[in-house]
Amino acid sequence: MVPLLHLQANGASPKKTGTKSDAKKLAYDDTTTADVDETEVCNPNGERGGATDDKKVNVLKKKVLAYGVAVTAKQVTDGENICIGEDASNACTENQACVYKTGACVDFATKVNTILESWAVAEEGKVTCFGASDTEDCELTYICNPRGTTKGGKIKAADAVETNICVHPDALWENGGYVCFTFPEAADGEDPVERIPANSESTILCDADKPYCGDDGKCTADEPTTSSTTVSEVTSTTTEGDGSHAATTPVWIGLAIAATL
């Protein structure tokens, strides 16, 4: 999230329009400040006297986009389509989405796009994965990790880390790798959650000393008592021109692990 803050005059002569702002952060907003109900956020990429909202230093909070969500026609009409990133800020158009790392607007729900659903397998034409705050175009067969923060590119399974945006399929511990999904514990009287990536709550990286992923979500040297691991796939089809960003051939559903007595 972009921190909300007060910008106060510092006595310096104003900068020329069109140049980066030299505004200083003097105090972070909190419940003790006069404007408890915040209405603006600071755009670090803004320019003093910016002519458009995406170029302004102070931007109305209601105009700032969420990350990785398709922009609607109404948002464009209302001017609530400003993408503020670390590197830039832009005004997105309908069916684009905001990338927080770069500040770029990418085609997301347009008729033609390359967006992968979370946990989907990269295939021809569907390779762009939205990680935690940035995107990466995955190699074919790699898996889109929405929690990912690391751009690994084309890597060997042995070089994979738990934070990869695009996960090498052979890096998963079920396939001989060290990347392990952890799952929430079931409440008393409730059935355990299905062990598929979409239900996982975090990802950890094991090693040669403790290569197995235990049922408690920790790496262990003891081989689990689970004897069968299967990979389920379904086919999700997209009607041409419907604006869907779903992958169109096998989608990663996950690893269904059946314990034996």
Structural class: mainly beta
**N-to-C SSE string, H for helix and E for strand:** EEEEHEEEEEEEEEEEEEE
Report the average pLDDT across residues: 79
> What is the helix content?
under 10%
Distinct helical segment count: 1
Number of strands: 18
Estimated radius of gyration:
22 Å
Largest sheet: 2 strands, antiparallel
- Low-pLDDT segments: 1-17, 23-28, 227-261
Task: Give the overall silhouette.
Answer: elongated
- Report the span from N to C terminus: 47 Å
Q: Kindly report the spatial arrangement of strands forming the biggest sheet.
A: 1-2
Beta-strand percentage?
15-25%
Count of structural domains: 2
Q: How would you describe what is shown here?
A:
This protein is mainly beta and 261 residues long. The chain folds into two domains: 1-109, no CATH class; 128-259, no CATH class. The protein has one helix at 73-77; strands at 5-7, 25-28, 40-42, 58-60, 82-84, 89-91, 96-98, 105-107, 128-130, 135-137, 143-144, 166-167, 179-182, 202-205, 212-213, 219-220, 226-234, 251-259. It has a two-stranded antiparallel ribbon. A two-stranded antiparallel sheet has the order 3-4. Strands 5-6 form a two-stranded antiparallel sheet. A hairpin with a 6-residue loop joins strand 7 and strand 8 (105-107). It starts with a strand and ends with a strand.
List keywords for this structure.
disordered N terminus; 25% strand; single chain; two-stranded antiparallel ribbon; 2 domains; two-stranded antiparallel sheet; 261 residues; disordered C terminus; mainly beta
